């Protein structure tokens, strides 16, 4: 069998070329893999859902409910009634959370260890695009259950899309299939984007990301330079790395099913179908910071450029589009602002402690997101102390203070020596070769 | 064979050398052809792409509110039944309503922009402009938040304000739906009403365009 295939496909060469490629090992390298695993779980559970979901807002009668409800909502009730149906839905939702969280942590790892530097700028950009696309897919899927909560959340997204000057209304009409809610095209449009087109885009990006990674080789911990200068220290893709990943995948699946089964996500029955009133919604955690910004930007932040029709720059546009876009563009540009290294290619991980400016900036950026997230809780019971002006103060002051405190602490601990690479003592006798 | 090719090439070059003007024109024609092709493709793509914007279909359920419509309960046990003024509690909270066509009895709940908030306040609290479009202490407003389009369905009893659950926009029903606090850019427009036969009836369209401010 192997020989038959080998004669036709030259498996031996594939094995030697690709599967024996060496991968360095470090626990933070698994963050990217966890992102990939969540995507695989999303596709598998998503396929199950598509086979039972009905993308329509036609009113249908459901046994046990007096008023007719939309077919999409009814089909979710049906899915929930299937054996493990509710669990599959819950796992789909939880994997979305995990995918976004893992992608974000993966990005932080790359940032803090300097792995985005030349020659890996392209993969840094692709990585950020993937994070954005993933969040967009999650948003587009959110309305599909068509319960009152999901509809309200999506309606806010529709409003933000419409707030873009000049083009916003057209963009929103195309993305949401008309006014949301209220158009019979809403759910079919969102459905097709969510289950087909955006996942395809994501798959393309993932493929590109991995190809580039294999071509450029992985960065590796610094000790590898001492042990085997100029070489990559790690384990072969197959069988060792594959086995590790396989085991990790199984553990991952076990854990998401445990979480998904134990804590059912998005109980549509509790929210009920579309109704005239608005429930008290909060978006999922990864949107909370934008939601916080929307709450604190006052209505006076508005001006109109009376050119053509609709040049309005309103508060929703600033909070929902401009600030996130600035952060996004800033993140994309990071690799082009690293002056520290010369023209050398980055092959080894950098220690966060050796780059106090970058590390402190990263922590300050996180603080900014956390403070904005906190602003999302303005007006909640128990949060009366948080006024809009205090939220502004925190958002501006805390990141700045954080930067200086973090910088100062790192300097106090590592002194002026941070530019020097740490001395690594070799214990074994193997790696005495002179430095390349 | 190779000789021939070389000769051919030589001839082509010789030809070009002979008359550079011909060469330049040929290049211009080619470039123009490519340009026209690309532009045509883009234009036709846009034309096809315009089909991605759905057509608005007007049905009896999503026709805009009109003068003479009767306000009915949008939800609850009395859904689709006319709101009787006596059932409104003084000092709120608001009741969410849809307009009903008095001739066909079709409830126009298909368009969220038809959502109406009805609330009964102390008549002396109403500003003169608001009182003009009110029926006694009963006032009606568009229910769609001017900020991002949520239905303004919460009520702050201490200040007698409408509150939008989405980003805590506060509107004052005694003062033309003025924004008291929060992000909404404009007041929610008032709906002129009268009370007749124990029903609440719209006497005109909203005083301004309802719906999220675009
Ligand atoms: C790529 C990343 C994906 C993310 C982040 C994601 C996220 C989500 C989210 C947040 C929901 C709402 C679930 C709920 O509230 O119950 C949802 C629903 C849904 N998704 Fe996905 N999804 C992804 C991929 C897919 C794929 C590839 C498919 C199909 C092949 C799919 C099919 C569905 C279906 C049918 C629903 C509606 C059923 C339901 O809401 O339970 N999804 N998705
Ligand atoms: S949608 Fe009403 S305050 Fe934002």
UniProtKB/TrEMBL annotation, chain A:
Keywords: Electron transport, Heme, Iron, Membrane, Metal-binding, Oxidoreductase, Transmembrane, Transmembrane helix, Transport. It is a multi-pass membrane protein. It comes from the Bacteria. Pfam families: Cytochrom_B_N_2. GO terms for cellular component: membrane. The keyword Ribonucleoprotein does not apply. GO terms for molecular function: electron transfer activity; metal ion binding; oxidoreductase activity. PROSITE patterns: CYTB_CTER, CYTB_NTER. Coiled coil: none annotated. It is found in: Membrane. It is an enzyme of class 1 (oxidoreductase). Residues 224-425 form the Cytochrome b/b6 C-terminal region profile domain. GO terms for biological process: respiratory electron transport chain. The chain crosses the membrane at residues 29-51, 98-116, 122-144, 156-176, 196-214, 247-265, 285-305, 317-339, 359-379, 391-410. Its EC number is 1.10.2.2. Residues 1-222 form the Cytochrome b/b6 N-terminal region profile domain. Its main location: membrane. This is Cytochrome bc1 complex cytochrome b subunit. It comes from Meiothermus granaticius NBRC 107808.
UniProtKB/TrEMBL annotation, chain B:
Gene3D superfamilies: Rieske [2Fe-2S] iron-sulphur domain. Keywords: 2Fe-2S, Disulfide bond, Iron, Iron-sulfur, Metal-binding. Its cofactor is [2Fe-2S] cluster. Coiled coil: none annotated. GO terms for cellular component: membrane. Pfam families: Rieske. One of its GO terms (molecular function) is metal ion binding. InterPro entries: Rieske_2Fe-2S (IPR017941), Rieske_2Fe-2S_sf (IPR036922), Rieske_Fe-S_prot (IPR014349), Rieske_Fe-S_prot_C (IPR005805). Transmembrane segments: none annotated. Residues 113-202 form the Rieske domain. The keyword Translocase does not apply. It comes from the Bacteria. This is Cytochrome bc1 complex Rieske iron-sulfur subunit. It comes from Meiothermus granaticius NBRC 107808.
């Amino acid at each position: 069998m192997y020989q038959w295939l080998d004669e036709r496909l030259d498996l031996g060469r594939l094995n030697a070329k690709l599967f024996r490629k060496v991968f360095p090992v470090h626990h933070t390298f698994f963050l990217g893999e966890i992102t990939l695993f969540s995507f695989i779980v999303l596709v598998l559970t998503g396929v199950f859902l598509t086979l039972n979901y009905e993308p329509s807002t036609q009113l249908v009668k459901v046994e046990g409910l007096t008023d007719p409800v939309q077919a999409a909502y009814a089909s979710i009730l049906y899915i929930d009634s299937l054996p493990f149906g509710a669990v599959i839905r819950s796992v789909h939702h939880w994997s979305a959370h995990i995918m976004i969280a893992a992608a974000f942590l993966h990005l932080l790892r790359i940032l803090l260890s300097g792995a985005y530097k030349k020659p890996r700028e392209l993969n840094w950009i692709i990585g950020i695009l993937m994070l954005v696309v993933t969040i967009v897919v999650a948003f587009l899927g959110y309305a599909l259950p068509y319960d009152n909560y999901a509809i309200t959340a999506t309606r806010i997204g529709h409003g933000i899309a419409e707030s873009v000057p000049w083009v916003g209304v057209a963009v929103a009409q195309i993305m949401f299939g008309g006014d949301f809610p209220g158009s019979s095209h809403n759910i079919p449009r969102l459905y097709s984007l969510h289950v087909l087109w955006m996942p395809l885009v994501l798959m393309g990006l993932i493929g590109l990301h991995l190809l580039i990674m294999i071509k450029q080789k992985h960065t590796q911990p610094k000790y590898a330079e001492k042990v085997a200068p100029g070489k990559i220290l790690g384990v072969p893709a197959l069988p060792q790395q594959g086995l590790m990943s396989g085991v990790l995948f199984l553990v991952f699946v076990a854990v998401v099913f445990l979480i998904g089964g134990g804590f059912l996500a998005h109980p549509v029955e509790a929210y009920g179908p579309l109704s005239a009133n608005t429930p008290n919604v909060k978006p999922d955690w990864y949107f909370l910071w934008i939601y916080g910004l929307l709450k604190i930007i006052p209505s006076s932040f508005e001006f109109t450029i009376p050119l053509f029709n609709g040049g309005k720059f309103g508060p929703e546009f600033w909070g929902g589009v401009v600030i996130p876009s600035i952060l996004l563009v800033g993140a994309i540009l990071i690799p082009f602002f690293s002056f520290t290294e010369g023209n050398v290619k980055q092959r080894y991980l950098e220690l966060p402690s050796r780059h106090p400016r970058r590390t402190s900036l990263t922590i300050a950026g996180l603080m900014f997101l956390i403070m904005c997230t906190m602003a999302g809780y303005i007006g909640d019971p128990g949060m009366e102390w948080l006024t809009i002006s205090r939220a502004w103060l925190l958002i501006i002051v805390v990141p700045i203070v954080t930067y200086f405190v973090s910088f100062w602490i790192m300097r106090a601990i590592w002194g002026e020596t941070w530019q020097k690479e740490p001395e690594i003592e070799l214990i074994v006798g193997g790696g005495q070769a002179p430095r390349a | 064979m190779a000789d021939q090719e070389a000769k051919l090439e030589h001839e082509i070059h010789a030809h070009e050398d002979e008359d550079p003007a011909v060469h330049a024109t040929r290049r211009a024609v080619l470039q123009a052809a490519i340009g026209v092709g690309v532009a045509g493709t883009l234009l036709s793509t846009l034309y096809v792409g315009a089909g991605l914007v759905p057509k608005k279909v007007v049905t009896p359920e999503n026709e805009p509110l009109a003068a003479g419509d009767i306000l009915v309960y949008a939800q609850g046990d009395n859904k689709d039944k006319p709101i009787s003024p006596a059932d409104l509690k003084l000092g709120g909270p608001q009741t969410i309503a849809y307009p009903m066509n008095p001739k066909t009895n079709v409830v126009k709940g298909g368009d969220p922009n038809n959502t109406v908030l009805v609330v009964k306040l102390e008549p002396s609290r109403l500003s003169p402009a608001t009182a003009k479009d009110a029926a006694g202490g009963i006032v009606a407003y568009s229910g769609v938040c001017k900020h991002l389009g949520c239905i303004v369905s919460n009520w702050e009893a201490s200040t007698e304000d409408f509150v939008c659950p989405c980003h805590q926009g506060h509107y004052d029903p005694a003062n033309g739906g003025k924004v008291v606090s929060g992000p909404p850019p404009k007041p929610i427009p008032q709906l002129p009403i009268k009370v007749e036969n124990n029903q609440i009836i719209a006497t005109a369209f909203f005083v301004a365009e309802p719906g999220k401010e675009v």
